[in-house]
Amino acid sequence: LFSLHEGKTISHMFGLIGIEALCGFQKPISTLDNQTIVILTSHSGQSVKPGDIKYLLNEGIPIYHTPNERSPLIIKFKVNFPENGFLSPDKLSLSKMLLPERKVVE
Fold first, then answer.
1. Which of 5, 43, 87, 97 has its CA 20 to 30 A from that of 59?
2. Of the candidates 26, 58, 20, which has an alpha carbon nearest to the alpha carbon of residue 39?
3. What is the band of 58 on the pLDDT scale with cuts at 50, 70, 90?
4. Where are the beta strands (DSSP E) in 1-106?
5. CA-to-CA dists, residue 100 to 22, 34, 78, 95, 96, angstroms
6. CA gap 74, 65 in Å, rounded
7. Of 23, 86, 21, 12, which Cα lies nearest the Cα of 50?
8. Which residue has the higher pLDDT, 40 or 48?
9. CA quadruple 36, 58, 25, 35: dihedral, nearest 10
10. Taking the CB of residue 8, how many other CB atoms lie within 10 A of it?
11. Residue 21 to residue 25: CA distance in whole angstroms
């Protein structure tokens, strides 16, 4: 589903699950002109945070009086986290060893 902004650009809310946000992803998206493009993380180890934005140049709506050019398509990321209790205690302990340490407040 696309949203129009000030008649000049469009955006799409893109949902990811936790593993995709942390470890990378490749997902297809259909554009307004029925093309399929693949959205992916660009660097190994790059994470996506809730609210991150990616601009896909020349993939949005046509620009008035310049039909060969298009505005950017704005992708806004939403990260869907798993439900409480999705990991057993032993797997949770393993996950804590793999993730960055939490800051302790004194």
1. 43
2. 26
3. confident
4. 2-5, 9-17, 26-30, 36-40, 53-56, 62-63, 66-70, 73-80
5. 12, 41, 21, 10, 8
6. 21
7. 21
8. 48
9. 0
10. 12
11. 7
Whether 12 has a pLDDT exceeding 90, the answer reads no
Extract the tokens encoding 28. Answer: 């297809």
What's the confidence (pLDDT) of residue 31? 80
Give the pLDDT mean for 60-89: 88
Amino acid present at 66: T
Mean pLDDT of 70-98: 89
The rounded distance, in Å, linking the Cα atoms of 57 and 31 is 12
Task: Provide the H-helix boundaries in 1-106.
Answer: 18-23, 89-98
The backbone torsions φ and ψ at residue 105, rounded to the nearest 5 degrees and listed phi first, read -90, 130
Closest CA to 24 of 50, 42, 49: 42
Length of the chain measured in residues:
106
